[in-house]
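Shipment paperwork, digital attachment
Item: protein structure file
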Amino acid sequence: MIPSIFARQPLSLRKTAIVLIAALVLMWFDSKNAGWFDPVRNTSHAAMQPIYELSLLPSYAMHWASDSVQSKEVLRRENVRLKSQLIHAQAKLQQQDYILAQNARLQGILSTTRPEQFDLNLAQVIGTDTNLLRQIVVINKGSQDGVRVGQTVIDEDGILGQIINVYPNTSRLLLITDEQQSVAVTIKRTGQRAIVTGQNIPTSLSLEYVFKTSDVRVGDELVSSGLGGRIPAGYRVGRIANVKDTHAENFRDITVTPAANFIDNAYVLVLQDKLVGEDNTTINER
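Attachment content:
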């Protein structure tokens, strides 16, 4: 009866039933003696090993991707940290370079003066005059520091100008580059005397009253002559940069490059006579 009913079932169900019956029989034998099926069990485990490894590939890929992202983030943060340290180091290096340059400049200023003739008053430029058309700067030394009107101011390279106004703690310095300022000079090579006048620009002066027949060359050094007693003799004023003859006049058109630094003159020296008078009047701003 049962075989006839079983025979009438579809082939797929019959195969399934056969497999289930065989599995139950094998499970019964395995429960009685597990050692019988150890070779089969080991062989099946070995055959399934590649499948296990393939099933783990997505997990491995996720872990690898996560580690890679974390590594990139760590590297990015480390890069940002190193860049920050580099910027700070460069900023400190710039400050150190500035301090070294200022120290060298101060040493140069102090080595160019004549201590036996003048008292040296080191001052700092703290601003410019409100009148932008004038070549005037303000320094941080005044009457309380012994600064007086008419005193000459220099840097390590040459003459800057003269004090024109003095206040208790500050003074106004008229630069020789101002168009209303003039300095009596001597051409060092020949001894010829002339007048240097400002042109209202910090990089150029004009040498005036030099005849066309005069022996003047590009590169000649000009020093203060001391005529008139306003500015001491022997200090550098500039060098001749260009000589041009004009047809209309008997004088040459001569351009002079200033010796002093009129662009970055952070520190200056006020030349004070060892016997300083008490007169503190304001000279005319020429």
